[in-house]
Backbone:
């Protein structure tokens, strides 16, 4: 019961942060870089052809443009929503999992699409797929719970849970590059990678929702983040790295599928 | 590859003031190295490995001085074009110069060829605010948006020096070099054509409309950063491709 209470308090706290970004720049670079390592040579060449840049260049593009017309409407594409019954809300079709599915389907016919549309869709996927795997990017419908602020502390000052978990890929990993992150974290077996890639964007979103619940027992409200124990830090890294890898492998899976001959 | 990093690290270690961040400057060096001849690379590595006591002394806000017709005027000894030409002369006539002078010339080129390609370093006669740094207001969003209220002050030189790495956290010089070469590789030969003076004129043509558009006290937002990132990256590419041309020429 106590755990459930903590969970409810924690989930409710997300109400006020709908404009926040998910993984920060470092997290997005890492996810895109790992995905890039798992692209087929054909898929990588196609991406470079359409993007005229590296795959990782566009990792944070959606965050940069979300406040600028005509991309303001893509703001909701960064998250997944949960309804009153704590189930995935797919009714409005404007959230990340639906858009991922739509774009994946559209890109399968990439040969008959204008290059500019293929490019734009790739840019969306590179950001969006890892983004909705960020544990604090599971949003809970506004107004269904009391709007209580759920904050963490850093040196006694309040800051949002969202901000903390956005930055968790680089937490206590000073000066890590995305290459180092990939080397240290991307060590899973091919069997597990295949397991991650199985399913659909909707199924992956349900998995992300399930994993999002793990955030709250690890970092309860008012946790002083400068005094986290080794065990807590290890738990934070475990969840973060798992979600980065899931996002990255699933992104690679989509791109490889689109450009398979 | 290990040797390459050692050499780049060696040269980078003497940097104290750069055109761009250390990572991006490093990228321009890696791009240059990719297009240097074997002979130039061997000579470069020999000079970079010299055990000499050399301290690079940056000149704050050093400029590429252009007249109203955008021609390099080489105003004084501090001028970037003048100092690059002197360094090239030292490396071209290595036999007449000490190891210390050769090393110093190499470090000068590593610093000043990127500086030369930084928009904020271009000074144009008749445009007062191009001759010294200036402040402007920076906002995250456009007027009317919530983000517009989040504002601060930025300087022109910081905008063109540090501002573009923010969204590429976790990248190292190697990945920057890979990305920039991927983006601009097809334009390499075109970018490499000409000489220092024609490149200075080209930089003037690029900088002049920017100085005309942006005055001290103006307001810029995130959209402008996104639009200008391609100019910034193209200049990193130019710096790398042209450094290769210069070194290939003088390190024969």
Residues:
């Amino acid at each position: 019961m106590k755990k459930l209470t903590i969970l409810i308090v924690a989930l409710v706290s997300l109400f006020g942060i709908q404009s926040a970004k998910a993984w920060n720049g470092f997290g997005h670079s890492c996810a895109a870089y790992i995905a890039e390592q798992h692209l087929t040579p054909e898929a990588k060449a196609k991406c470079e052809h359409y993007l005229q840049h590296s795959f990782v260049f566009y990792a944070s593009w959606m965050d940069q443009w979300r406040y600028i017309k005509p991309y303001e409407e893509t703001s909701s594409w960064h998250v997944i929503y949960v309804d009153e019954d704590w189930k995935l809300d797919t009714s409005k079709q404007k959230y990340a999992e639906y858009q991922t599915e739509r774009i994946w389907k559209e890109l399968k016919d990439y040969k008959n699409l204008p290059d500019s549309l293929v490019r734009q869709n790739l840019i969306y996927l590179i950001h969006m797929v890892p983004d909705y795997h960020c544990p604090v990017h599971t949003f809970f419908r506004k107004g269904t719970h009391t709007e209580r602020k759920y904050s963490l502390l850093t040196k006694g000052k309040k800051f949002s849970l969202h901000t903390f978990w956005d930055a968790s890929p680089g937490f206590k990993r000073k000066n890590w590059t995305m290459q180092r992150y990939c080397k240290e974290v991307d060590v899973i077996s091919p069997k597990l990678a295949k397991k991650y890639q199985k399913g659909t964007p909707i199924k992956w979103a349900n998995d992300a929702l399930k994993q999002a619940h793990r955030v709250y027992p690890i970092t309860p409200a008012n946790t002083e983040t400068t005094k986290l124990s080794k065990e807590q830090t290890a738990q934070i890294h475990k969840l973060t790295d798992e979600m980065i890898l899931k996002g990255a492998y699933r992104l690679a899976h989509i791109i490889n599928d689109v450009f398979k001959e | 590859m290990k040797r390459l990093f050692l050499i780049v690290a060696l040269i980078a270690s003497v940097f104290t003031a750069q055109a761009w961040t250390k990572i991006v400057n490093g990228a321009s060096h890696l791009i240059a190295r990719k297009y240097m001849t074997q002979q130039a690379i061997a000579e470069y590595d020999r000079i970079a490995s010299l055990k000499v006591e050399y301290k690079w002394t940056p000149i704050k806000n050093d400029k590429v001085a252009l007249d109203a017709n955008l021609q390099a005027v080489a105003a004084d000894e501090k001028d970037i074009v003048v100092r690059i030409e002197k360094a090239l002369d030292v490396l071209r006539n290595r036999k007449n110069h000490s190891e210390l002078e050769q090393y110093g010339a190499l470090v000068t080129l590593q610093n000043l060829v990127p500086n030369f390609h930084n928009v904020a370093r271009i000074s144009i006669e008749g445009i007062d605010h191009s001759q010294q740094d200036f402040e402007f207001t920076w906002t995250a969003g456009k007027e009317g948006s919530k983000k517009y209220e989040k504002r601060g002050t930025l300087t022109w030189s910081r905008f063109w020096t540090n501002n573009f790495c923010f969204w590429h956290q976790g990248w190292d010089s190697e990945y920057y070099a890979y990305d920039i070469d991927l983006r601009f590789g097809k334009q390499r030969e075109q970018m490499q054509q000409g000489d220092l003076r024609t490149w200075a004129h080209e930089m003037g043509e690029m900088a002049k409309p920017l100085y005309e558009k942006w005055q001290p006290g103006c307001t810029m937002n995130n959209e402008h950063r996104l639009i200008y990132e391609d100019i910034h990256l193209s200049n990193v590419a130019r710096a790398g491709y042209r450094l290769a041309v210069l070194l290939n020429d003088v390190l024969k």
